[in-house]
């Protein structure tokens, strides 16, 4: 394929002398740039480099988002696996154990023995994918490290009695069932 210069010559748009003069000017410019150490500013090349930098930055951001999503998915898979391998039986009881998860009050039916374990804090409730499972405290704390919103925290009541409390003599039992 012929060069653009040859095509212009054949079309008659430029003459030989003009083409030769342009070629000599380019060679002289390159020699001057080599001697002085300066380069001519090429706006198109600078714009292309700028676009390339922006694309690389955007690709890094997208990769970081993708990596964060994959890490979150892996953590959730670990939680599901811990729940499936360590869940405890609720028993065949008809005792309703009420608890609060977030702002919602919910209940779960358990046996009397399981209720005692829940009150003592040896068992905890974990809500995963809309299912409520009972887990040992150690496993529930590991899950809570990964995602605290899944574990139901039972609030411990303090047994300290205020000296100025007029109702100090009337204690409410902690095993009160609704």
Structural overview:
Helices cover 52% and strands 16% of the residues. It is an alpha+beta fold and 178 residues long. The protein folds into two domains: 4-35; 45-156, no CATH class. It has a three-stranded antiparallel β-sheet with strand order 4-3-5. A hairpin with a 2-residue loop joins strand 3 (123-128) and strand 4. The N and C termini lie far apart (92 Å).
Derived structural class: alpha+beta
Average pLDDT for all residues: 83
Strand content: 15-25%
As residue ranges, the low-confidence spans are: none
How many structural domains does the protein architecture include? 2
**Taking strands numbered 1, 2, ... along the chain, how are they ordered across the largest sheet?**
4-3-5
Radius of gyration, whole Å = 38 Å
Tell me the distance between the termini. Answer: 92 Å
Helix content: 40-55%
Element string (H = helix, E = strand): HHHEEHEEHE
Helices, by number, come to: 5
Question: In total, how many beta strands?
Answer: 5
What overall geometry do the principal axes of the alpha carbons give?
rod-shaped
Largest pleated sheet: 3 strands, antiparallel
Would you spell out the secondary-structure blueprint of this structure?
Blueprint: H1 4-11, H2 16-36, H3 43-86, E1 95-101, E2 104-110, H4 112-120, E3 123-128, E4 131-136, H5 137-146, E5 151-152
Antiparallel strand pairs: 1-2, 3-4, 3-5
């Amino acid at each position: 394929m012929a060069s653009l210069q040859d095509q212009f010559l054949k079309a008659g748009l430029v003459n030989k002398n003009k083409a030769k003069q342009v070629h000599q000017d380019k060679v002289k410019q390159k020699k001057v740039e080599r001697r002085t150490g300066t380069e001519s500013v090429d706006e198109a090349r600078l714009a292309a480099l700028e676009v390339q930098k922006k694309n690389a930055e955007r690709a890094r951001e997208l990769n970081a988002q993708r990596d964060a999503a994959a890490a979150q998915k892996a953590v959730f898979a670990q939680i599901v696996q811990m729940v499936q391998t360590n869940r405890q039986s609720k028993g065949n009881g008809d005792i309703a154990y009420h608890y609060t998860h977030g702002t919602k009050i919910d209940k779960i039916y358990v046996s009397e023995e399981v209720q005692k374990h829940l009150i003592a804090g040896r068992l905890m409730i974990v809500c995963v994918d809309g299912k409520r499972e009972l887990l040992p405290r150690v496993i529930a704390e590991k899950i809570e490290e990964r995602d605290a919103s899944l574990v139901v925290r039972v609030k411990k009541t303090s047994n300290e009695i205020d000296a100025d409390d007029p109702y100090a003599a009337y204690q409410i039992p902690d095993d009160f069932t609704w």
